[in-house]
Structures are given as structure tokens and as C-alpha cells.
Design goal:
InterPro entries: Alkaline_phosphatase_core_sf, BPG-indep_PGM_N, Metalloenzyme, PGAM_B_sf, Pgm_bpd_ind
Catalytic activity: (2R)-2-phosphoglycerate = (2R)-3-phosphoglycerate
Strand content: 15-25%
Keywords: Cytoplasm, Glycolysis, Isomerase, Manganese, Metal-binding
Helix content: 25-40%
Largest sheet: 7 strands, mixed
Oligomer: single chain
Strand order of the largest sheet: 2-14-13-1-12-10-11
Number of strands: 16
Structural class: alpha/beta
Organism: Rehmannia glutinosa (Chinese foxglove)
Radius of gyration: 25 Å
Enzyme class: isomerase
Length: about 550
Amino acid sequence: MGSSGFSWKLKDHPKLPKGKTIAMVVLDGWGEAKANQYNCIHVAETPTMDSLKNGAPDKWRLVKAHGKAVGLPTDDDMGNSEVGHNALGAGRIYAQGAKLVDSALETGKIYDGEGFNYIKESFETGTLHLIGLLSDGGVHSRLDQLQLLLKGASERGAKRIRVHVLTDGRDVLDGSSIGFVETLENDCAKLREKGVDCQIASGGGRMYVTMDRYENDWEVVKRGWDAQVLGEAPHKFKCPVEAVKKLREIPNTNDQYLPPFVIVDESGKAVGPIVDGDAVVTFNFRADRMTMLAKALEYEDFDKFDRVRFPKIRYAGMLQYDGELKLPSRYLVSPPEIERTSGEYLVYNGVRTFACSETVKFGHVTFFWNGNRSGYFNPQMEEYVEIPSDSGITFNVQPKMKAVEIAEKARDAILSGKFDQVRVNLPNGDMVGHTGDIEATVVACKAADEAVKMILDAIEQVGGIYVVTADHGNAEDMVKRNKKGDPLLDKNGKIQILTSHTLEPVPIAIGGPGLAPGVRFRKDVPDGGLANVAATVMNLHGFEAPADYEPTLIEVADN
């Protein structure tokens, strides 16, 4: 930061006092959606959150928690806990996903990273396998990123490369797969001229092979596994372009639903099964349709289908697909380097900080909040407490999770007078929402609401301020919907459960006896998102936010 005159010292807010205890509560997976029987937050008894929503109209509003508001490429990208907490803590929007990969490839930084150096150890004697969606759709992957990776890996010692393609036709036009395969074949041919044995080894349509999500249908992943790893598929071809053209001629077949195929040599032997000593990279940057394959490639202990062989490979994802599961454990592109987070500023300016959650979200309220950084900024000023999550059961079995314990720790921290900010994450809505168990999710939402009440009661006692918000949606919509918004049914007429996050906005509420008179949400930041929360909280601590932070959501009206 050096000579540019940078200072950690924040300016005092002209109208807001310092020294109030602030409770910063993040409800995980708690969005705002229409009231119906699939909205577990609506169905659940949530008197505390209801009272915030129906209280003073200028103390409650919605903020964006998905897509571009949290640094993801498009507004079709649902939010997630990692990017959500990054935005909440950083106060600015950092590139996530595709944009990160672009810059890592452009600068060549990707090749200096731990992940690439790990897979590189297989180049001398093994094969490098690249698996992912072959298109320029830009939702899950992009052809130009694959091309750069092929070039970069071959320049850095990969002598034998096999690409396992998944055809698209969903984010791009149906039929465009032929052109993409021709382009890739061309690239492989050029590499072969340079002495690199590069070829397409297998393929299949994204909706039928490999790219299932939310553990909907493991058969999809198995079809891919059989072709990619075992080198077995119902259709065998010598030429990939011919494979796609011929398979598209089968009735009711399109790019999305192309059956699996393997490429074979003159003797009919598969050209690229995955074997011991090989390296594998899944090159999609979007997580949701790579997570299941990542589990199959990485987990020793796996029972979702019979893998037949579990090769000893070096596997890395393009990115880490799941921050909670730390999956995959190796990845080519690291999360963004976020500097000057609100947490670091506040600690530097004398704000004593307490943060707490249970295991599944403890990293979110500390590591991700603090800009993907471990540990304390100043151990004299901070205390982080992790409550062990239940293990060995799915969260719908104990939907209350550790909400009470988290709330008790927060309450004690508030009442102790030792802290100026007490920050918690209540994971119930998200973790139970992911199980797809609607009844359990209702119980979970009630438990989270009761935890909020315990924290707000403590704030009331010490004359403090509360900020209650969320990181993304989940529990507010538990059913898959068609374009019109009507619930989708399966072939037996049962509703199709939605276990994922959503695109919904999330609430933010402020209040408490310590809130200065005249503080209210501004009307001139209608598109406010999670990144606007940091400046808001800094103001409530009595400081102005740094100039490059997203604008605060509050103003002080002259009474």
C-alpha cells in the first residue's frame, strides 16, 4: 500500500456515535419469495423475523445475493455461501468463477499455482485428462479457456492428453456441438504435429452424461464414469466428429442428450481410459454440475454407484467447487485475493470482534468474511468460536442443528461487554434446505428464528444495535418450477423438490435501542446487494467506509 498515503485509520462518521455493541447476524439460505406451501420460511413460525419485516418500513429491505451482485458472471448464477460472505465482509464486488479463471490464464498465474504443479507430476509418465462441457456458452465453461489450458499444459510438459467432452445444446444452440468438436479436433491435430499425443477420448450429452446436479440421478454420472474412466460405452467410434454426427441421427437425440461414446483405435481399444498415475482436470468453472463427478474422482469411500476401478490419480478442479466440503481438495485457480476487508479495518480502528458458528459455516463467518484469509488480524482484539456440527447424520435428522448453542455464545459475548461486534452465522435454512426435506426445513427455520430472538434480546439489554441479513436464498423455495413459475411434477405426479440455492433476494433489517434517531435505509440504492452491507455496518460502528467500498444502505435523517 506504501507511498500512496494509504491509512488503516477510518474517518469518524459525522452523525453516528461510536461504541455501540453491534450484533451482525447472517441467516444462511434465507431468501425472500412468494408465500406458498413450498416456502418453508413462510410456513414456519418465525415471529422474530416477521416482526422485523412488519416493523418500521425504513428499517427493513431486500438486497441482491446472486449473480453480478456477488461477482458471478451472469444473473442466472445463484448465489452461494462463499461468494456471499466474501461480499458481506469485503464491501466490494470481486470477480468470482469465470472471471477469475480468465485472469489466471491470461497472466499465466494458473501455471504457478499449487494445483497445476500437483497434476504436473503426472506429465512425465501419465496422461492428462480434461473433462468438461465443450461450448462457448460461458455458463459452466468456455471453449477458449480449454484451448488455453491445452496450450499451456502442452508447453509445460504434458506429452499425452485426452479430452472427454460433454456436448451442450442448452446454453448454446442445439447442433453447435459438431462445430465445437471440429474446432477441438483441429487443435489436437496441431498439437500432434508438435509431438504431443492429444486426442478426444470420449463424449456424451450434458444432461445424460456426467453433468447431473444435487444428487438427482447418479446414473448420469455413472454413464460418464464408464466412458471416461473405464473406456466403456454402448457406442464406439474412431472419429469424434463422426461420433457426434451419427449419434445426433438417433430419434429424440440432441446435443443435451447424446448417448455416451468412446473413441477407439484401429484394434477397437479405447484410446483414453483413466488409469493409475494419470492426472485429471475437470475444467468447468461453475460448480453445481461438477460436484458429483468430483466426489466420484476424489472420495476413497464412495457408494453411489459401482466404480469398478478407482484409479490412483492426481485430480484437480478448475476451481474448488464446494467450500463447505472442501471439494475438490486441489484446484487450479484459487479464490480471489481480497484485501482491506471491513473486518481488518474495524479491528485496526478499535472494534473488538467476536465471531461464531458451527463447523459447516464457521469458515464462512471467519475465513470467507475476512477475504479468504485464515486466523486473526489481531488476537488481542478478536475471538472466534467454532461449535462442532453434528456428524454422521444428515441435517434433516436434527434440523435445529446448533442454533441454540450459537445464540447462547453470541448472547454471552454481547452481555460480557468485551466486544463491539458479535457476528454469527445460523446455518439451518441452508443445510437443512439442501436435504430437500420440507418438514425438517420448516423446523430449521423456526429454530433459526428463535436463535435470532435470543441475540436481539441481549442487544436490547446492552443498548446495542442489530443487523440481521442472509447470504443467499434456499429455504424460501423448495420446489422446481417451470418458466411460468408453476411447480414441476415428476412422472408419478409428485412435485420435484428443489434442494439448491435460489436467485431470490435476501432481507436486511436494522434496529435496536442503540440505533441513532433518524437512521433509515436510503431510497437511492435500489439495486443494493450484499457488498453494500459492509459500509452500512461500518457506519453503525461510527465510521465512514473507505471511498472504494460499495455505498452504505443507510442515511441519517435530520429529525
